[in-house]
Design goal:
Length: 88
């Protein structure tokens, strides 16, 4: 489970370690971030500034790597004029 550049979510207790100095972490449960998101995410919300060139094209290319996906996507769009949102 422990590897370089992997994000983990841990549940446990943090306490001062008088023997070694610093702190000690006792983990009761541990989850891989990517797996817990895939299993429990209700939606992915993104705020896109479409005033920036190629913003939509770049995010579309990034999301294409994860299609088809089961997590609903919400986009909040910042435009030159009034803003809007798209959910799907």
């Amino acid at each position: 489970l422990l590897t370089r550049d992997r994000i983990l979510i841990v549940k446990g207790g943090l306490r001062e370690d008088e023997f070694n100095g610093g702190y000690s972490l006792r983990i009761r449960q541990c989850w891989d971030y990517e797996q817990i998101c895939a299993d429990h995410a209700q939606r992915l919300s993104l705020r896109l500034d479409l005033r920036e060139k190629q913003a939509f094209k770049r995010i579309d290319a990034l999301l294409a790597k994860h299609r088809p996906g089961k997590t609903p996507l919400r986009l909040d769009l910042l435009l030159r004029a009034p803003s809007g949102g798209v959910a799907g």
